Structures are given as C-alpha cells and as structure tokens.
Amino acid sequence: MVVSGDTTRRSGPGAGLLGRQDEVARVLALVDEDHPGPRTLLLLGDAGTGKSELLTAAAGHARDSGTLVLASQGIEAESRHSFASLHQLLLPVLPGVGALPGHLRTALETAFGTAPDGGPPDSMLLRTAVLTLLDAVSDHRRVLLCLDDVPHMDRDSLAVLGFVIRRITAQDVAVLLTARGHTAPAGLPAGLPTVLLGPLTEQAAAELMDAQPQPPTGRTRIELLRQAGGNPLAIIELCRAAGTGGAGVLPGGGLPRTERIQELYAARLRALPETTQRLILYAAASQGEDLATVMAAAHAGPDLSAWAPAEENGLVTVMDGQVLFRHPLVRAGAYHAAPAHLRQRAHRDLAAALTTDPARRAWHLAAACVGRDESVATALEDTAELAERRGGFYAAGQALQRAAECSPAPADRARRYTKALRAAQNVGDPLWVSELYGQVTALTADRDLLGMAACGAGMGLSLFGHQRQAFRVVLSALEPDPPANGMTVVALTSILSAIAYQSGLPGFRGPVTAVLEGARPGNHGSPYAELATSDSSDAVRAAALAGADPTRAAELLRHLRREPAAREPAAGIAETTRLLGLGGVSWYADESDLCVEAHRQGYALLSAFGAMGSAAPSLAAMAASLIDTGRWAEADEHLDRSAALAAVHKWAHLHSDVEALRATLRALRGETSGSPADAAWTAVGLEENRATHARLLRAAGTAAAAGGDFDGAFRHFRSLFAEDGTPLHYFLSPRSIADLAAAAQRTGREREAAQVVDAVRAAVGPQPTTRMTLLLHHAAALTGAPKDTEHHFRLATVNPVGDQWPLARAQARLHYAQWLRRRRRPLDARPLLVTAVESFTRLGAAGLADEARVELRASGVATAPAQADPLAELTAQQREIVRLAARGLRNREIAEQLLLSPRTVSSHLYNVYPKLGVSSRNQLRGLFEDL
C-alpha cells in the first residue's frame, strides 16, 4: 500500500510500497526487457494489501522505459456488459485494427458494436483477432497488459483474455493480473505464476503507520497495529480515523470511526436482514467470543442460516465455532454503523451471556459503563491480575488503564494507572508508558507509586535515546527520599544501570552502586511479580552492579551460579527475570556462551508471554554475543526480530544498534556494503548514547578494513578512545582494542595504538576477564615491543577458553602466522593458517578466509576452498532439531523438548536433509564434533 506520508527518503519505482520490496522487485523484473521465462504474473491477496498499487508501480516503470501499457480494471457495474473490459484494454490500439485482415477486423468491430452488422461475433475469430493485434503492436514496441481486479471483469472479456494469455508467445508482451482472494479466479489459465500478498511484517506495518500524516502514539498505536493485522489499507484508514476522532475502547481494543470506513462497507451492511445485522453487531462488539456466546447474547436461537447473507456478501466467515471478519475494517464499520444505545445493549447482553468468563464479562461491563463505577474497576483489576499471572502484559495494561478510568477515588486511579504503567513497560511501549506516567504524577505524591512509575518512564526515555532526561527521572525517585519498598529500589537501580550503560556518560554509574550498597534488604511482598523470588531479585541486583562496575562481574557471576539445590522453584515471570539478570551479568563478565544461553531461555519465555519489553536493554548485547561466538545465522534472525520490535515500539537507539550490528556482520562476511546507513548516525544523540556510538564506530571500522581502507579503519577504531586513551564507552570500547591494533599495524601507527593499549589495560583492572586478557595480548603483539611479540601472540592463541570466540581466535592466529612467515618461519605458520582458514570458512567470513588462503599459499601449501559449515545456513530451531536427532532422539521426543508438534519436527528434518547433504538420520552425527 502506498504511504500517504513523507517518502522522500525512498526513490525509484514502487518506493512508497513499504514492506513490499520483494514483490516490487519481482513485478518490475517481469516488465524489464531481458526478463527470462514466462512474462505473466497473477497478484493475489485480500482487499487493501497493495495489489493495485503494485500494478500502478509496474505500469509507471514500463512507461518510463518506453513500453506501451494497456490497462483494464474490472468494474462490478460493467461486469454485465459483454466485452466492456476488453474494450477498455484495447482502446489505445484500436486505430490499428484497420491493418488486420478483413474477417478479423470485422470480428473485433462486431464485438465492440462498431460494425454495421450487429450480430454476435464469432468467438474464435474474435480471440484470434485480439492475439494478432497484440502481436502486431509488439513488433514495434514492448507491451504490458495490466488487468486489475479480474473477478469483476465481464465473462466474455475474460474468456478472450484467457485464450490470449495461454497462446501469446511474443517476448515483448508481458501480462500482470490482480485478483482478490488467495486462489486464482475462474476463467484464467491454470498454472499461472502467482504472488500472494499477505499481511505486512510487524516492522513494515509500523513503518507504514509512522509514515502517515498523523501517526497515533502510545496504546492507540499498538492497538491499531493489532487491529489492522498487517493490512496496509486498514493501517492507513485506522490511522486517519484515530487522527480525527480518536479510538474508543472496547473488548479487544479500540476501533476508531470515520465516515470513510463506514462508507467502505455501509451499503453491504445495510442490505443485510435485520437479524443478520444484529448478529454482525454483536460479533463486532465481542472480543473473540465463540459463536454460541454471540448468538445467545443476540437472542438469535441456534439457526445458523441467519449468518448466510453476511457470508455471501464476503463480510464474515462462520466456521469451527467462531465468527471471523474477512477484513479488519468490516468490524470497525459494522460496530460504528450502529447507534450508541444498540452498542451499549450489545455489550450488556454479551456480559450477561459470559457468566463463566469474568475477564471478558468485565470488559463488556466497562464498554457499557457511562462515567465511573468502582465495581467495574474492581472487576477489571481482577481481570488484569489474572492476565498478568499468565504473562499477558498487554491485556493487563489495557484492563488496568480502563480500571483506572472507571475508578471514582483519585488514590485508586493513581494506583491502577501505576500498575498499568508497569504492564506497559513490560510490553515495551515507551509512548504508552509516557502517557500513563503523566496520569500518575498528576494524581499522587506517594513515593512508592512514583518510584514504580519512574521505572517505566525512565526506561521509556532511555529507549527513545534521551539518557540524561531518563537519568534525572529515575534519580528523582531515589533521592532525597527513596521508596520504602526495597524491591522498588532494586527495580529503580536496575533501570538506572541500564541508562548508565547506554549513555556511557561519566558519573551515571556511581549512584547505582551507592544506592544498592546502602539499601535495606527488600521484601518480596511488593507488587513486583518479576522480583517475587530471591533468585530473581539477586540476579537483577547483580546485573545492575555489574553494569555499574564490570570489574566486579566475575565475582557476582560466581555468586549467582551457586549450587542448584539452593535455588527456589522457578515461577513464571520471576524465572524470566532471573534468566535475563544472569544473561546480563554474563555479558559483563565476558562469559559469552552463558550470556547467549541465558538470554535464549529468557526470550523464549517472554515470547510465550507476548511481551518483549523487559528484553529491550539486552537485545543488542545478545546480538553481539551471537556474533562474537560465531552463531551468525542465529544473529541474523535475532537482528531481524530486534528490528521489528524497534520499529513497532519506536525504540530509537535499538534501531541504530541493529543497523550497526548488521553492518558489522556484512563486513565480516566480506560484503562491500559500506558503513551503517546515515540514518543510524542521526536517529539519537550519540553524545548521550555512547553505547550506540561505539557500535557504529566499530561497524564503520570493520567495514573499512574489509574494503582495504586501513587508514579509515584506524580512524574509526581510534575514535572509540579519547586522546589520552580513555574509552568512549567504558565497556564496549575496550572490546575493540585488537581491531585498533590491527589497523595500526597496517598503517604504521603502532606507537599511537600502544598508548591506547596501555590505557585499556589500566582501565580493566588487575584481574581482567579471560576475553579481555586475550584481546590485550593480541593487541600488544601487534603494537608492543618487538622482543615481546611472540610471547604475546602465544598467550593470545593457546588458551583453550578462547575458542568460544572463534572469530577473535582465528584473527589472532592469522596475525601470528603472518608475523612468523615474514620472519621466514613458514613451517611454524602453516598449522596456524590451516586452522584460521577452517575457522573463517565455517563462520562465513569470506574476505578473511581468502586472506588466510593467500598467506597459506605463500607459505608453500596448495589450498583448496574449504567448505562452509552447512549448519550455518539453518535457523536456530532447525539446528537444535538436527542436534537432537543426531543424538538419537525420535521426532516425538524432540517435539516434547522444543514444545513443537512431531509433524513440525518431521517437516524440518525433511527440508534440511538436502541442505546438509545427508539422506538419513544416521548421517547427522558426523556433522557435530561435540556429541
């Protein structure tokens, strides 16, 4: 769907079709002169998915290249007139009919009513005439036939066009067709190449929403994304509605109203019988109630025939005990087409019918409520607590906000708004959090409530990139009078630590340690389900302290990894919090494998809850850990999910982080796509988002090095440190010290880099992590005193623990081997180079693998291209399935472990066997060295 907002940052044909890049490329390729193979394509999809816009883009591209475009659009009102669509299509070339043989010319003129004899045309002559005319036109210029909305074309035209499509052989004639639905309409040739336009991805849908003139914010934004279901037309219309009239809350969310939405379906709705209209209204007012409940509430009896008119009109589908609206806008139109008193009655009747479902009953009572009602507010709060226990934070936040709106007492409103804010924070929506924070601060001066609210507001501001403002908000809740509840203090310092890490600003970390070390032991009777166990609160506290002072991370991690017998039973969100805290401490302790595993488990639980807000601060760290540990295919998947979350929730700095990490991966793979995009450097203020700045600089340096620009690489890596060697970012900058040293060695700046190496050695303290120790030895070997070079190289390459960072280990071996070969020790260099080539190849680091092969050949070894690791091409889930199958587990056992169906496991194995070059389970074991 074409965006209606600013699209100046995109250019070219189809540039405004957000989220349809692949489809645009395929359609434009069909139009191009050198397109091989069949030049016919059918675009399928629901109403509003962008079929006509794709057709328009193709037509514009064709005209720009000198192609003659013949277009016809199916119009329902003309579908009863024979050959109306064919006449519309051929109108521009009808002057050429005179050149046809007489009998063919007569057939065409008769069909179009211009022949003196008004008898019916001979069908075969007519079809031959159209085919001959198009062949003749294509002799002089290329032709594109654009047939939009084929099902509404008249039957006679469709019969002729079907014949032409089956027989046209001219390579200079391309045919594009569109049809609503998921299957080709009757009348078209069988086996046409098709493209099905499904819903937009979450990221593309969010980008389309943000491109509208008045994009909604906060809860309304998330709700409209959910309601639209990825349908571009629904996104645009619902945004227009929200901008002009706001969103009214109902069960399942707001359905904004505009006259345009009603007009889209008003005629079809008004044509329905009264009983059917009432059923449609009750289904629209429901939040997914089953068919029996809707019919009972509407007092319609058990006869399903009342639904038939709506089904025949394509408004709903009734199946499997459910009522499914065929398009998101049907529900909006049906609901708002009814007067207010009928909508209120529908909600009351639905509430009365839901005697066994208090949660949904509460929502319908709220929708029917006028003014404030404590009984409704209490029911909604109970509903929210049930939803939150199940991990339904979005539903909980909705219910709590509505409960607050229904609360007569200001104190109850403040308390419920605060609980709604916490749920919104877990969802990860900073705009919604900001709206609720304003409500809380206007209603109360209670330090505990303000502290809880400040957690969400501070995290939201941080995700927007406003670190200084976030720091002030959180610190104001801790000083001068901290909250009485110890768990609120722990939660606040956790947010403060995340802000300090992202900002990298001096002075932001000190208060974290000071507050936590001076805080009273927390009680677990607080409203924080996330901190309900000592394990979860200890993990959060440890992560905050490690973020404030990474030199303590190893000690804090040892404490967390105490014997399992002492651990409390895991429970829901508290276990998720423990895992994320453990992953955070592992990140700061440079225990990358543990960091990955803990975050994997934590994210899996959060995904099951449907709310990834708690993961936001750790997503970039997880991606970096996946890259560092050689899990690049999984890193790609993780970055795709992170990009979607950043787009949906408008997490500004994460957008830049993802771009930086993607650029780093591209460069490591040897792709010459350059530095991160310009937008990534300007999305947030880099001066107060030093973590993002450090990632961008590392990406730019890695890209420059991959392109052979070592001066540029040195410049970018050197920018990670101040003139005196002070790190730009206290944690991230030191992890690029070996990259800086390698660029310095290439450009003759070893002395300058050596000063930075000394500064980093001092900054990481007397007991650096194993990873930092290896990196410092690597850097010292490249920039230090020549007499110590081999000593440092050996220390950088021999510790087996370093194998968990395969890229860094392979780079150290390559540099060591290069040093050995230049000292005429090729025999010593060869084993290092062989291992380096294997490692780079397995990772997919093509450029580095080629460099190592050149060195290996120079050392006197003839090399053959090493084979890439076939497992690297699989998704994370597929790799795990293959690993378990290689261990001998059966499909059912694998399914039970991974919470999948046995059929899904079987399907994955069937699909991956060709990729792995195996034909049976027995061959899988040879793919793993650690089984």
Walk me through the structure:
It is a single chain. The chain is mainly α and 931 residues long. Helices cover 60% and strands 4% of the residues. The protein contains 44 helices and 7 strands. The strands form 2 sheets. Strands 2-3-4-1-5 form a 5-stranded parallel sheet, with helices on both faces. A two-stranded antiparallel ribbon has the order 6-7. Helix 20 packs antiparallel against helix 21, helix 21 (447-464) runs parallel beside helix 23 and helix 23 (486-503) runs antiparallel to helix 24.
Number of strands: 7
Structural class: mainly alpha
List the uncertain runs.
Answer: 1-11, 246-258
The oligomeric state is single chain
Q: Which bin fits the share of residues in helices?
A: 55-70%
| Number of H/I helices | 44
Q: For the report, how would you describe the main beta sheet?
A: 5 strands, parallel
Strand order across the biggest sheet? 2-3-4-1-5
Gross geometry: globular
In terms of DSSP E residues, the strand content is under 5%
Q: What's the average pLDDT?
A: 84
Question: What is the CA-atom radius of gyration, in angstroms?
Answer: 32 Å
In whole angstroms, the N-to-C terminal distance is 50 Å
Summarize the structure.
With about 950 residues, the chain is mainly α.
SSE blueprint and pairings:
Layout: H1 21-31, E1 40-45, H2 51-64, E2 68-73, H3 84-90, H4 102-111, H5 123-138, E3 143-148, H6 155-167, E4 173-180, E5 194-197, H7 202-210, H8 218-228, H9 232-245, H10 259-270, H11 274-285, H12 291-297, H13 308-312, E6 316-319, E7 322-325, H14 328-337, H15 340-353, H16 358-368, H17 374-389, H18 393-406, H19 410-427, H20 430-443, H21 447-464, H22 467-478, H23 486-503, H24 510-518, H25 534-548, H26 553-560, H27 572-588, H28 592-609, H29 619-628, H30 632-649, H31 652-668, H32 678-682, H33 690-706, H34 710-718, H35 737-747, H36 750-763, H37 770-783, H38 789-798, H39 806-822, H40 826-843, H41 846-858, H42 876-886, H43 891-898, H44 902-916
Parallel strand pairs: 1-4, 1-5, 2-3, 3-4
Antiparallel strand pairs: 6-7
Helix pairs in contact: 1-2, 3-6, 4-5, 5-6, 7-30, 8-9, 10-14, 11-14, 12-15, 15-16, 16-17, 17-18, 18-19, 19-20, 19-21, 20-21, 21-22, 21-23, 22-23, 23-24, 23-25, 24-25, 25-26, 25-27, 26-27, 27-28, 28-29, 29-30, 29-31, 30-31, 31-33, 33-34, 34-35, 35-36, 35-37, 36-37, 37-38, 37-39, 38-39, 39-40, ...
